[in-house]
């Protein structure tokens, strides 16, 4: 159980656990975020085999559906229905009647082919444990495989080779982001309009480039009145939506012709805000709010995990009052350092003065945008 008081973490963030026995975790396998580690990862994840299989087969298509020529709504099973086996790289459907991903697990040695990653949600699932796994745990093979699949998804969508930014310039050498088209997924003009603007926000491109990697260092300096010194924390890997945003922005900066397919990012956003599912016309401002707020929540969660790790992940029982006070102080200041707040969030100060005693009170509120009324000028028209 993690230290909840300093951050007021919700119990709903904890994933459901089954009663199956599992190996006890060692001290390094702390699970700061969501999901679980499992005993099958070492046997069921083979990055090299996944790379060979994925690069030599049709991306985001069920291999068995293609071989059997099985059609779902007139097309082969693809997209969010596909699960990738992390042992051999097999891509199988999960929502059709065929259930090829499940059959693949059952046909082969169960414990060796039991872990998959969804290409729609980027969540890892273990058939043997029957529950979701954390891709941010200390099992490097799982996190590295997820990273490869996400990069390959961008490459397959854009048709270009995935190149990492120039280390000599820190990814900031090119301030001019080329203007590229974005595929319409079906009444998603509202989404594309927002993404075109964000792709041209240079500060966003720079900051998200800085924080994208696992192990990024963040220095937190609380105010003097808190009586705590500066703290250098090491952040875990970004959460799924933030990772998808980075991959999208990177694909928009890549050279090459052809529009960018935003399906991965859009699917991740729909996981956070189901109201945008269904390919109906939506409001761009509402989408921007949901997108920024969801990334802000992810980055806040990431920073909190880094702070707790700096204190050796204290629990309610092990943390003393001084540790709780320090964690709370660093958490209050640290959450303001996420890239969303630094770019998009402003502070509105409301000042109220009492007419009788003339006491002045101020209230500060954060905002992403301010709605201003548009007053129409009344023009009198004389009829002749």
From TrEMBL:
Quick one: which gene encodes this?
USP45
Report domain UBP-type positions. Answer: 36-153
GO terms in the biological process aspect are: protein deubiquitination; proteolysis
Residue numbers spanned by region Disordered: 1-35
The answer to keyword Membrane applying to this record is no
The alphabetized UniProt keywords are: Hydrolase, Metal-binding, Protease, Ubl conjugation pathway, Zinc, Zinc-finger
Reaction(s) the record says it catalyses: Thiol-dependent hydrolysis of ester, thioester, amide, peptide and isopeptide bonds formed by the C-terminal Gly of ubiquitin (a 76-residue protein attached to proteins as an intracellular targeting signal)
State which Enzyme Commission number(s) the record gives: 3.4.19.12
This protein's name: Ubiquitin carboxyl-terminal hydrolase 45
> Where located?
Photoreceptor inner segment
Q: Name one GO cellular component term.
A: photoreceptor inner segment
Q: Mostly located where?
A: other
One GO molecular function term of this record is: zinc ion binding
Occurrences of domain USP (ranges): 180-384
